[in-house]
Predict the 3D structure of the following.
Amino acid sequence: MKKTALFELHKSLGAKMAPFAGYEMPIQYEGINVEHTNVRESIGVFDVSHMGEFIIEGNKSLNLIQLLCTNDVAKLRIGQAQYSCMTNSTGGIVDDLIIYRLKEQSYLLVVNASNIEKDWNWINSNNSFGATIKNISDEYSLLAIQGPKATIAMQSLTNINLESIEFYNFKIGKFADMENVIISATGYTGSGGFEIYCKNNQAINIWNKVFEAGKNYNIKPVGLAARDTLRLEMGYCLYGNDIDEETSPIEAGLGWITKFSKDFINSKNLKRQKLEGTKKKLVGIELLERGIPRKGYEIINDENVVIGNITSGTMSPTLSKGIGMGYIDSDKSMINSQVGIKIRNKVIAAKIVKTPFVII
């Protein structure tokens, strides 16, 4: 198993470590609910250095990325980031990712840890444009500093005005006495904050100074378990659960990052899906009784007919009720429709709801 630059530090903090995407990662420290609530109310820090980073450069770097990705990367200005996904030849999702425009002809692609090798091969197999592609995943660390107090707590660590960095924008500069750090107003929690990209040899120093700066703001380390409950409350998709090679961005409710103003891999079929509709769609599910809708559980209608399956589920720490997402027959997906979730030998009452489950 690989280890991030912060592995020993996590152990010293008493983190529960477990394998994730080929890495030994911190799953929790004090406990999921405590960590989750702290991000919602103040500030929490995640080590997500297992994520993958690719640099794509060259005269036709934009051409390659436009072919691969559903969103319109041409709209990105230097200093802006964009959420997107790569589709395969059948319209399924190779991966979802964030694209950063670093320079005029230089882009940073941040991909899911479990897909680094697959994405690398996919991008290179489609590079008929002569773009230069570098895999820098093993060289960089990534800290997610999330929560409503992140801006005020971290301002002492940089001369960059953090309040001036708009959502999905970034600056490159000095942070915690380290040079050439990417400070990005992005995250996977819905509670605001920043993601910090730095070299591995800068990570421990930055982590320590982040916690020193945040000590008066109830800063806490947060594991991947709470990262999952936070993202699910916001209705954010998780690759391998809610989206994969068999699901299209239209089915997954990602039409907003699927732009047909340009061609990309399998764009014609996806455009047809958007116009004609899909047989299934991803919806939010809220339990009306006690229970947790786990991945794979069947969704049934009032006639006990299976109409879908849960893809992600948890007990929401904020709402204190079971929530989940799942694919359901499109003609049965009306908001507030009553459904049942088969949990072991019981059917638990639930309803279809809009996401996000929690409004921040």
